[in-house]
Amino acid sequence: MKYFLILLFGTFVSNAQIASEQLNLMPWPQKIKLFEGTFALSKNFKVNITGNPNDRIFIGATNFVRRLDGRTGLFLEQSFLTKINEKPEAELQINCTRNGKIEINEDESYQLIIASNKIIINATNDLGALHGLETLLQLLQNNSTSYFFPVVEITDSPRFTWRGLMIDAARHFQPVDVIKRNLDAMASMKMNVFHWHLADDQGWRIQLKNHPKLTELASDGNFYTQKEIKNIVQYADERGILVIPEIDVPGHASALLTAYPEIGSKVGEGKITYEIQRNSGIFNATLDPTNPKTYEILSSIFDEVCPLFPSSYFHIGGDENNGKEWNANPAIQKFKQDNNLMNNHDLQTYFNMKLIPILKIHNKKLMGWEEIMTENMSKDAIIHAWRGTNEGQEAGGALIKAAKSGYNTVLSNGYYIDLMLGLESHYLNDPLPKKIILSPEEKARVLGGEAAMWSELVTPLNIDSRIWPRTAAIAERLWSNAEVNDINRLRKRLKTISFRLEELGITHIRNKEVILRNISNNQDTRALNDFSNLCEPLKNYKRNGGGKKYRMHSPLTLFADACNADAAQALDFNEAVNTYLDNKTVANSKAVTNFFKKWVVMNNDLIALSTNAPLVQPLLPLSQILSDLAEQLLSEMDKKKKVNPTLMKDLLEKCNTRSPADVELAVYTSLKKLVDIQ
Amino acid sequence: MKYFLILLFGTFVSNAQIASEQLNLMPWPQKIKLFEGTFALSKNFKVNITGNPNDRIFIGATNFVRRLDGRTGLFLEQSFLTKINEKPEAELQINCTRNGKIEINEDESYQLIIASNKIIINATNDLGALHGLETLLQLLQNNSTSYFFPVVEITDSPRFTWRGLMIDAARHFQPVDVIKRNLDAMASMKMNVFHWHLADDQGWRIQLKNHPKLTELASDGNFYTQKEIKNIVQYADERGILVIPEIDVPGHASALLTAYPEIGSKVGEGKITYEIQRNSGIFNATLDPTNPKTYEILSSIFDEVCPLFPSSYFHIGGDENNGKEWNANPAIQKFKQDNNLMNNHDLQTYFNMKLIPILKIHNKKLMGWEEIMTENMSKDAIIHAWRGTNEGQEAGGALIKAAKSGYNTVLSNGYYIDLMLGLESHYLNDPLPKKIILSPEEKARVLGGEAAMWSELVTPLNIDSRIWPRTAAIAERLWSNAEVNDINRLRKRLKTISFRLEELGITHIRNKEVILRNISNNQDTRALNDFSNLCEPLKNYKRNGGGKKYRMHSPLTLFADACNADAAQALDFNEAVNTYLDNKTVANSKAVTNFFKKWVVMNNDLIALSTNAPLVQPLLPLSQILSDLAEQLLSEMDKKKKVNPTLMKDLLEKCNTRSPADVELAVYTSLKKLVDIQ
């Protein structure tokens, strides 16, 4: 933790009452100077705004006061902030020089100075000031009776200008309130780009008045009206967030082609039809790039979509076109020959290039997944890097290639939060790893990154738990200094950050209880909760192998949906095992065997629960094996009875087999360490 | 419980596998015949619809399948229902003769027949069929591994045609998602009228394009757009629910007069202005009934509001006009004299009568709170009875008077759920009590009742917990036979009903955890939860005495907001005390003293918690007194040590003093019984 003192503290005052380790800031600011003393919060606390900010600061400051009030119960007197310099005597003074613009490379810096009787936020514009308010909320401390802020000086600005979250609202529709609460949470983590995946094989989610067929035939009634879109764009703007729409073409087009089969590439006898997909996976439905009508329809779709989004970028997807329909279509093959297009990749570039002038009419530049990066692609485009070792590529390879080739680029490889991987893999995934040498110009093209929430296995009930709190770690990676990378320190802060997300309506904790209560059939959920803190959902898309088990309407109210990456009790157990293995004292052994005793009780509780709860049944095999192994290890460690090593190994391996509950035991590796030394 | 056997069971089959006591139906159906045997639910279960229903049955049946799937995790194969007779082989057959109309006195009856291999719902129209689906979901049973329905025949229809819930979205705005989830919950309880209180002193919540000033000046930005209103009316229609809008006039008009002060009754020097209120209470702002412009503006407001709501009724409020502005305005006094209006009541009638032809243009009849019932009021109006002993009136008096005077009438007195009274007071509040003798025609004018959720002390975070589950008891009162009135049986069923409301997104359980977690400052919430199950929020508006403590932006994240009427552990304690007092066995004594031991531990836990949680501090005085009294009673009952009776009485009375946490101990009465016998 050396770097905190050296890099961040500057003139660290050794007798400060509050140490930086006590601060649960995220993303960690660029510079903090802590001083002795505190600012006491009282019900008279007020906020005043000066300068020439955008009106969004009034909304932000009002929300700030309400959140502070809800958290402290102080009955703060100030209600709504609506005017410049309304309370010149206020203890918190916010000054912004100018109106902030919602676009990339805007200045988001701020300075926060807390003295014992005054707080000042200075920022070039309201965007920086909003970030300053979030930092201030995170700084709130308390003793047993009162609330206060530490005396501190913070100077802060982001390392990367693009700190995004993509939500796929196509596979499982996510209603307006889900989007809004996630925008609130993003803003609290200083994230500034919301990438909205609005169409895919499973549904078309945006109302188009010129093309009512799209939602009539390909949405199951689940779509955003244009009013709702505008409302969300406005809501995002008020929180300093840019919204980038995505209409995925030419692949992922089953929904579009359900309404307009005439521009598909499929050949066959009789009338060609498409239908929206109910499974996950990569499908054949692909637009016909040789058909002029394709561009007519897309152009008229863009005519209506583009004005809804002030952003200067438009995401056209462009990923995972499997080429099957193109290969099977003789006319398309002939077109390739006639136009000297060597392969489907070239044909897709041809298609993409045709979209550039169409988007230009609306002053939009093209953004697309990395497959769009081909020789002739315009250098105006943003390349969205997503593939990695999972797809047989070098991790982040496209990002570096794009930057070197002159493209602005954004990283999502390593930030796929739907893979259900642990914090560490995302947190340590730096868009600019030290080993990569880039020129300053090339580095500047690496705009930042985006967490990607694909929605095959999420509904409004569980989506928050897949996004949060892990996305906070990604937010820190994109905002903070590269040297801020201590995973243990992250975990400690994240406990508070995760709790505080509830203030913004994020449902990751509360809805876990709902799922467990449903599984328990309204019985006591303690044993289920304990087990859920030892288990993690299967990773890397193994849960929905081949995309066939879970369809778009399958229940996501199961045990795996209540579990999460970074299972909490598993982390504690792993630490206890490591401590014990380092130093086999009685106390360290006891710390480990206490877990075993709990697991035996837990298994019995689960069995008891299952007599009136069919949804508990799929959990029992894994719980039983864990309990059996725990009993064996207890015998060895507590009672010093030697256990048959074959039996032990057998039990251990059963701990590692696929559970009917679609989860895996997050304690397996630590258990293996213990078994291996017996 | 005699009536269940006699009235409801008819040919009750004595060897039925499932007894009616096992069924958690609510509202309890008119007729149930249980037979031996069960219908086993499998993943192949499908639904088919025949007849000539409204399309809403497809939405209802699709939601039914998804809820069944989420609850059981069966991966049911059927996705979206969209067509008549799509699955003729389906196990569940729904037949509706005709399209249901969303209006009062529509036929809502249904018949549900479950055989071991087939389920049939027959209904005149889709409204009855939707009710049948809710009953079917409530009938689902399980053993340890599977789900099934009992073989049963149910014939059902409502006792009253008006089974409503009013939500006040004016004092605290309630966003669209709050309204929608409550509409879902209403439908699950077979409620059919949503009364939407859209304007009051604290805010104007409906967008009017001809009157943008109303939301610009009097909403703080919190209002429903017309699209949102239409969307909610449609959503309600899909669930068989009629929406009645309320614009409260001529009193409760601060918001309206903030935009249009020129039609207010206030006199004074200089420019007359009004502003929206931040406190609760009855305010002076009142429209000027003598000013023609008042009717011009109201008429043009109604021109825009009325077409948004298909209902043939329009609620004009008409309550709590304190008359102060009228009395202080010489021109209004002169108008009264000139027009032979004896008092303000007459003047208000004059005003109300002027609204009737304005509403008639839109084919709307007038509905208003009981104050509108005056000599000349049109018999077309619906009288909404609300006053009772709290307001110095006979409970429900206006209802009976209205029915006898020839008005249709709806009861809300006794159904004010914001008073935080217990279940019993609402459940036993029959609109047609036996002691009241009415002719058949008069009885028919008693349309039913409405739960009233005034929103002085509710936000989206806690509103569900104030509405549910108590409103389910009111729903049963209005649907079921008058003889279904056993409070213990209600409580037992309500435990399951309350749990099942989570399926529809109702947040009463989950958000309690959120509030407690905030109070605990992210520490263990068990002691807080235990204490919350002993305490109830202050009743009858005592919490916000005079409307001054809590303003519209005050935090409602406090302990009282996590507590609820009918505190669960208090009910258990009261039962244990009564059992002990009936029969002072050792076991019965132990059952009581076990509570005391828990409370002593709980108090210590709360003290420990408070060292890092300022919001726990206000709870400690009450918890400490309870713990002290528990220790004294423990000494007496367990150790047979005689305690100083003065000390004991003193402690008891301290248990009954106002707590800084704005709650009261729901165990006080039982404690008093114990102290009194020592």
UniProtKB/TrEMBL annotation, chains A, B:
Signal peptide annotation: 1-19
Pfam families given in the database record: Glyco_hydro_20, Glyco_hydro_20b
Matches recorded under InterPro entries: Beta_hexosaminidase_sua/sub, GH, Glyco_hydro_20_cat, Hex-like_dom2, HEX_bac_N
Keyword tags: Glycosidase, Hydrolase, Signal
Claim: Signal is one of the keywords in the record: yes
Entry keyword tRNA processing: no
Annotated active site: E320 (proton donor)
Domain Glycoside hydrolase family 20 catalytic, residue spans: 160-481
GO terms of biological process kind: carbohydrate metabolic process; ganglioside catabolic process; glycosaminoglycan metabolic process
Positions of the Beta-hexosaminidase bacterial type N-terminal domain: 23-156
GO molecular function: beta-N-acetylhexosaminidase activity
GO CC, any one term: membrane
Protein name: Hexosaminidase
